[in-house]
Amino acid sequence: MKIAVTSQNFRTITGHGGKARRFLVYTPDATGALHEVERIDLPKEMSFHEFHGEGPHPVDGVDVLITGSCGHGFAQRLSGRGVCVMVTGETDPLAAARAVLEGRPLPAPAPHEHHHHH
């Protein structure tokens, strides 16, 4: 299993998944211990907010993407790429990835106000 976490500072889980450009990627070893295997640092045009191409994307191949917040469209687009998006209030990337790997629920995200006018 390959788990990516949105982390603009490469230390904590950050929100706004669609605009995120930095991701920590974890995979378990043979003993089940998680290891950071990659740090993805995308140019702005490759954030999902900007990227609308049908071609490959650096986040492809990830099984789960954990973020602090995201819109419904972002989750749908990643689902179409085979990625399960999970939103959480957890701030520790490794703790969140470990919970997902072990099948434990993640803490709910904090209430988030969107200021979009429909």
Explain this structure to me?
Helix 1 links the parallel strand 4 and strand 5. The protein is of the alpha/beta class and 118 residues long. The protein has a single domain, classed as Dinitrogenase iron-molybdenum cofactor biosynthesis domain (Nucleotidyltransferase, domain 5), CATH 3.30.420. A 5-stranded mixed β-sheet has the order 3-2-1-4-5. The radius of gyration is 14 Å and the shape is globular. It has 2 helices and 5 strands; from the N terminus they run E-E-E-E-H-E-H. It starts with a strand and ends in a 17-residue tail after the last helix.
Structural class: alpha/beta
**CATH level-two architecture:** 2-Layer Sandwich
Low-confidence stretches: none
CATH topology: Nucleotidyltransferase, domain 5
Q: Largest sheet, order of strands side by side?
A: 3-2-1-4-5
Strand content: 15-25%
User: How would you spell out the order of helices and strands?
Assistant: EEEEHEH
How much helical structure, as a percent, in the residues? 10-25%
Question: What's the level 1 CATH class?
Answer: Alpha Beta
The Cα radius of gyration reads 14 Å
Number of helices: 2
Report the end-to-end length measured between terminal Cα atoms: 38 Å
Instruction: Tell me the total number of β-strands.
Output: 5
Instruction: Please describe the biggest sheet, giving its number of strands, its sense, and whether it closes into a barrel.
Output: 5 strands, mixed
Shape: globular
User: What is the count of distinct domains?
Assistant: 1
